[in-house]
Amino acid sequence: MTQTSFDMPQVLSFFDQLQKIFGDMDRNYDIAAQFYGFQCRGCEENCCRTRFYHHTYLEYLFLRKGFDSLAASERSALRAQAANVCRQTELADNEGRAVRLMCPLNKDGMCTLYAFRPIICRLHGIPHELQKPGQPVMHGPGCSAFDERCSDKPYFKFDRTQFYFELARLENDFKQAAGLSGRIKLTIAEMVLE
Ligand code: SF4
What we know:
- The structure is a single chain.
- With 194 residues, this protein is mainly alpha-helical.
- The chain has one domain (3-193).
- Helix content is 52%, strand content 5%.
- The chain has a two-stranded antiparallel sheet. It has a two-stranded antiparallel ribbon with strand order 3-4.
- Strand 1 (106-107) and strand 2 (110-111) form a beta hairpin.
- Helix 1 (8-36) packs antiparallel against helix 6.
- The longest helix has 29 residues, at 8-36.
- Bound molecules: iron/sulfur cluster.
- The site of iron/sulfur cluster (SF4) has 8 residues, from loops.
């Protein structure tokens, strides 16, 4: 799949809506982080080493938009890193080993495509809650750095529900407009190589 499969003006209007959702997420995350006095300063466990899968075409295409805006030499270096991550992951999977490989977009602790990063990269770290329709509220923990520094603080409600629902609605609208079905399951390394 490549983004040239789609009508670009149509995709751009979806990107505008996606960025609005991301902006709301970032603001709400910042409010919660400020409440706790939590700031991500990087850590040994670095969440950029977690094998997160991303499931929406929109997140994939938006990341690819950022990737395509980089200089050719940078794209080529990132592709090489992404290929290495995929190779090492496959090897570890075949051997039944767990691995925590750094995301190929993480350069010296900074995200190369920070403005284009997907939803989970924006929300990870702070304790949160989520409520699926007809189900009880689910509570998720913060990351280990959060636990070390902020576990003595009172709970601040950081509800991801609205963001997931808005993204799901937008993704559905997009798939309908683009004639797509199903959902993707890609790591960042795989997105870079697609
Ligand atoms: S996309 Fe950026 S924030 Fe997300 S895991 Fe990769 S480097 Fe980290």
